[in-house]
Write a structure and sequence with these properties.
It is built from 12 helices and 2 strands. It is mainly α and 267 residues long.
Length: 267
């Protein structure tokens, strides 16, 4: 029974897209357009130079395209199913999360796992196509590939907790759309989605090192393209693991405090 409940929770959001073929077509087209535009942009920026900020043209293009593909890991339309924390708080239905057979924190984790596995299928498909077409470069070695996979796993774990903290804020702010948009922009900027952090000023890179955002994407992709050497991989992986532990403890505390704010009438 527990396995059945877990399976049902994990497939909530993916089913929303799988049962809507036009939405999947739109996602495929948007992803293809994003890859083409990013590929064209970075090749154009490197048209008159060889190496900038320690990145060659091929490294920069590979980084940028992989960042686009990685964005699909958690970029699913939860609003269509009306199952976001923000919506439940607005409609007063968050109480049902506490009446289900699964605890709310476990339901949230299982649903996020299903979303990431579904997004992983999109990202891997796009990666294989881009690799076959020569849009991105392969890892420099098998060791680099293994370190990248481990770092990416830790990065997605950190991202899960970052997104969880944003959702947990709804228990105190009820409607925090503006705050969510600001924090999502900060997440994308400081994690290197818009551009590699190596292009930013030194003070910006130093500041971001004290935040968990770059551990979500910048570190894995920098390891993949070789901007971070394998000799520094152990330190970077340990930093990512430390963020996982700290955020796990922090979100566990927030879950306990959030439960005290839920009443029988809803949010």
């Amino acid at each position: 029974m527990a396995v059945l409940h877990a399976w049902r929770a994990a497939r909530v959001t993916p089913l929303g897209e799988l049962n809507a073929p036009p939405r999947m077509t739109a996602v495929a087209l948007r992803l293809a357009v994003q890859v083409v535009l990013v590929w064209s942009l970075w090749r154009g920026l490197y048209a008159q130079t060889g190496t900038t900020a320690g990145l060659s043209r091929d490294q920069a293009v590979t980084y940028a395209v992989l960042a686009v593909l990685a964005s699909r890991l958690r970029e699913l339309d939860q609003y269509a199913g009306r199952d976001t924390v923000l919506q439940h708080m607005h409609f007063g239905t968050i109480v049902y999360w506490y009446l289900r057979p699964l605890p709310p924190q476990r339901y949230y984790a299982l649903r996020a796992a299903g979303e990431q596995l579904y997004g992983l299928a999109w990202a891997l498909t796009g990666y294989v196509i881009c690799l076959a077409l020569g849009v991105v470069e392969p890892p420099a070695s098998a060791a680099a590939a293994g370190v990248f996979v481990l770092s990416m796993l830790l990065g997605q774990w950190v991202l899960y907790y970052v997104m969880l903290v944003l959702d947990q804020l709804c228990f105190w702010t009820v409607r925090n759309t503006a705050a969510m948009l600001i924090l999502m922009f900060a997440q994308n900027l400081l994690s290197g989605v818009y551009a590699p952090l190596w292009f930013f000023p030194d003070w910006f890179v130093t500041m971001s090192a004290f935040l968990p955002f770059q551990a979500t994407l910048s570190v894995p992709l920098s390891l993949y393209v070789g901007r971070i050497p394998l000799s520094d991989a152990a330190f970077q992986l340990s930093v990512q693991a430390a963020w996982v532990v700290m955020l796990a403890l922090f979100t566990r505390l927030l879950w306990r405090r959030a439960a005290r704010r839920v009443i029988s009438q809803g949010g």
